[in-house]
Design brief:
254 residues; mainly beta; seven-stranded antiparallel beta sheet; six-stranded antiparallel beta sheet; 17 strands; unfolded protein binding; protein-folding chaperone binding; Chaperonin_GroES_sf; 20 kDa chaperonin, chloroplastic; Chaprnonin_Cpn10_CS
Amino acid sequence: MATSQLTASSISTRNLASYEGFRPSALQFHSISRVRIATLTQRSFPCFVVKAATASALKYTSVKPLGDRVLVKIKEAEEKSEGGILLPATAQTKPQGGEVVAVGEGKSLGKSKVEVSVKAGAQVVYSKYAGTEVEFNDSKHLILKDDDIIGILETDEIKDLKPLNDRVLIQVAQAEEKTAGGLFLTEATKDKPSIGTVIAVGPGPLDEEGNRTPLPVTPGNTVLYSKYAGTDFKGKDGFEYITLRASDVIAILS
């Protein structure tokens, strides 16, 4: 509760009568702006103090996702580089993973009720710009759709990712380090490869009746995919990986 204290210099003889308990006839003024302070005592004016309520921030005790939405506690960003150098906030990589805190009741497809594909407690990776960020229990959380979750990752190795729905995990083919003429290429001038080996696939998308449709690729396939599709990851094993939707795979190579 905040308290506002009126000062003597702010009182005018024209508005004193509006305050209950004031008796203007008992006051002595030398001018309109100057009041003899000795006459303005708390004993003379029992209603002199005016109190005003101050609004406080709302506190929530629970957040319940609806439909096929999921509440994820965002993993903290790395504050140091792999070499141990402290990173400023602007250079820290935005986290793309976290722990599932709560899930919705699912969605209806045709006559079937389809549950959310993850459970509370699962460690997941999600699309970079998906969802709505909220503050809850003094931590950052994200509310996003089940379809925005790329996969479940229970270890620190991206190659262990279990893709969900129509997602595919691909190990990217290494870029050429030399031109046809034998010149060495820098990292900036190497062409981004769009060929790789399928490591894992999701169970497939849902049809209108809630049934899974198998994907057209399987682990071990060498594939060609759209050049700017998917989400890139750097594995601890030194390889580049990418997760994308099966519809972004253009062809199987053999």
